[in-house]
């Protein structure tokens, strides 16, 4: 095995960055979540070259004070929690304080930001964890991050990326998911200069579904609403006419986070029993909101999984809520009228 080495901070940072930053889509997710946490009501995302060459996020949120910028880029620096006790009640999307340090370790980052209380904004440039400059600059309120040449200093990682069009489509998915879980925020997505998505931010989920997926889908969904003392479930489920061959149109948000869960998917599909053919998968956007503490969001840095206190209970309710909704006679009539 040879001599034992103590790794340099630079190497440690690059390894840690791999935990959070896997591809352009993970950069987009972290930065957009920061914009949401900063109270933005409009977020625009632009990518070129699959987001590997260029990825820009602009928000109209709180901005960052000039004297806080360097701190924000340190590992484990966050303004969102103070100690472990706060973990039980995380309300923000971020809390690990890892995104900015990780992204800046493996890309060229330009930040322009201004708070409403300061006259001037600030521009900060940091490339591969090395600070280049911090200067005053005129800027609107809010924050813009431009990320260039992702993985320019970690070629091994860059090799694992897929084609530009595939990476771009993953970024698109991320924007879509965040737009669906935040109908109160206006989202815009530009891909190689073309507008691919624009939501109004009027707070109405059915409008957001229409703006993202178009009329065919939006006119074939049914609203669901359920509430007891532990959990509330609401959103829209698709009629069988808009079923798909894969699970790409199954969207779950738990306490406002997009998550993937085979168990939840299966429970919902079970609710469709008798309404779909075996190889078909439904369209749905389902928000599940638990009272504080019943769900653990602290499972993995990318946080696409969550742990439930009582998963069997939530699976059973989901199946029932969906099945009851599909069975309602009115919808059978509605379906006839539609035709
Ligand atoms: P976390 O989101 O877990 O706190 P990050 O590394 O993502 O950690 O961000 C570090 C800090 O930088 C945040 O806690 C926040 O104070 C600040 N910040 C990052 N992005 C923005 C933004 N778009 N607007 C305002 N503040 C931001
Ligand atoms: Mg964050």
From TrEMBL:
GO molecular function: ATP binding; ATP hydrolysis activity; ATP-dependent DNA damage sensor activity; mismatched DNA binding
Superkingdom to which the source organism belongs: Bacteria
Keyword DNA repair: yes
Keyword entries, A-Z: DNA damage, DNA repair
Keyword DNA repair: yes
Leader sequence segment: none
GO cellular component, one term: mismatch repair complex
A biological process term (GO) from this entry: mismatch repair
The DNA mismatch repair protein S5 domain, residue ranges: 209-327
Function: This protein is involved in the repair of mismatches in DNA. It is required for dam-dependent methyl-directed DNA mismatch repair. May act as a 'molecular matchmaker', a protein that promotes the formation of a stable complex between two or more DNA-binding proteins in an ATP-dependent manner without itself being part of a final effector complex.
Family indicated by similarity: Belongs to the DNA mismatch repair MutL/HexB family.
Protein name per the record: DNA mismatch repair protein MutL
Organism of this sequence: Pseudobutyrivibrio ruminis
């Amino acid at each position: 095995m040879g001599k034992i080495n103590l790794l340099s901070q630079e190497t440690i940072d690059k390894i840690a960055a791999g935990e959070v930053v896997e591809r352009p889509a993970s950069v987009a997710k972290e930065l957009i979540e920061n914009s949401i946490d900063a109270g933005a009501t409009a977020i625009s995302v632009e990518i070129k070259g699959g987001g590997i060459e260029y990825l820009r996020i602009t928000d109209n949120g709180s901005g960052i004070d000039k004297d806080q910028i360097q701190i924000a880029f340190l590992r484990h620096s966050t303004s969102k929690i103070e100690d472990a006790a706060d973990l039980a009640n995380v309300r923000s999307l971020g809390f690990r304080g890892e995104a900015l340090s990780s992204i800046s370790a493996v890309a060229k980052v330009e930040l322009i930001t201004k708070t409403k209380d300061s006259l001037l904004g600030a521009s900060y440039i940091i490339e591969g964890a090395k600070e280049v400059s911090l200067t005053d600059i005129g800027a609107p309120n809010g924050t813009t991050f431009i990320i260039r040449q992702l993985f320019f200093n970690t070629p091994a990682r860059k090799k694992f990326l897929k084609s530009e069009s595939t990476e771009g489509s993953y970024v698109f998915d991320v924007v879509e998911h965040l737009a669906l879980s935040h109908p109160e925020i206006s989202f815009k997505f530009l891909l190689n200069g073309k507008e691919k998505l624009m939501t109004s931010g009027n707070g109405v989920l059915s409008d957001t579904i229409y703006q993202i997926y178009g009329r065919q889908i939006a006119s074939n969904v049914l609203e669901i609403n359920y509430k007891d003392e532990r959990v509330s479930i609401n959103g829209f489920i698709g009629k069988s006419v808009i079923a798909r061959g894969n699970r790409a149109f199954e969207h779950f948000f738990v306490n406002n986070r997009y998550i993937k869960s085979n168990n939840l998917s299966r429970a919902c599909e079970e609710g469709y029993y008798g309404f779909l053919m075996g190889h078909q998968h439904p369209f749905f956007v389902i928000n599940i909101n638990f009272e504080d503490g019943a769900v653990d969001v602290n499972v993995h840095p990318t946080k696409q999984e969550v742990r439930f206190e009582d998963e069997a209970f939530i699976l059973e309710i989901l199946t029932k809520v969906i099945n009851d909704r599909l069975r309602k006679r009115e919808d059978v009539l509605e379906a006839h009228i539609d035709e």
